[in-house]
From TrEMBL:
MF-aspect GO terms: RNA binding
Organism this protein belongs to: Dipteronia dyeriana
Lineage: Eukaryota, Viridiplantae, Streptophyta, Embryophyta, Tracheophyta
Identification of the protein by name: RRM domain-containing protein
InterPro entries: Nucleotide-bd_a/b_plait_sf, RBD_domain_sf, RRM2_NsCP33-like, RRM_dom, SLIRP/GR-RBP-like
Pfam families to which the protein is assigned, alphabetical: RRM_1
Keywords from the named record: RNA-binding
Gene3D superfamilies recorded: 3.30.70.330
TM annotation in the entry: none
Length: 138
DNA sequence: ACTGAGCGA
């Protein structure tokens, strides 16, 4: 029970980007019970399309939404996307079935999509201290 | 043309 509660704790993925002037923080939360029908598909070939993913995943269940993430800087696909299923079990089946399978000649990495935290990414204007040594908080 | 380990506006 208690261990299950600990496991149920939402894990946070923190991406820290250190710049000369600012520190960019992006937080993601893992859904405890909801939005499990959302799959993160990584390792996608840069030549893959949304319709390809939809066609590949619709074979396992009803795909409600398919979106491939493109880089807004270069305009090229980052190589990963998100697939929404109407049923969580179908999403899990598709994940278990398509995970490790090669699409467009490239192995796919499928996992539960982490839900991005609401709001905009936290941007810290400046680092308080470089911290040459690990500081202990009282 | 080449590249990649990554969670979206």
């Amino acid at each position: 029970m208690m261990k299950n509660s600990l496991v149920s704790i939402a894990r946070r993925a923190l991406t820290t980007t250190v710049n000369s002037t600012a520190l960019n923080l992006r937080c993601y939360c893992s859904p405890p019970s909801s939005s499990k029908a959302k799959l993160f598909v990584g390792g996608l070939s840069w030549s893959v399309d949304e319709k390809s993913l939809q066609d590949a995943f619709s074979s396992f269940g009803e795909v409600t939404e398919v979106k491939i993430i493109y880089d807004r800087d270069t305009g090229r696909p980052r190589g990963f996307g998100f697939v929404h299923f109407s049923k969580e079990e179908d999403a899990a089946s598709a994940k278990d079935a398509m995970d490790g399978k090669a699409l467009s000649g490239r192995p796919l990495r499928i996992s539960l999509a982490l839900e991005r935290v609401r709001g905009e990414p936290v941007v810290v204007p400046r680092l308080r201290n470089t911290g040459d040594s690990s500081r202990r908080d009282a």
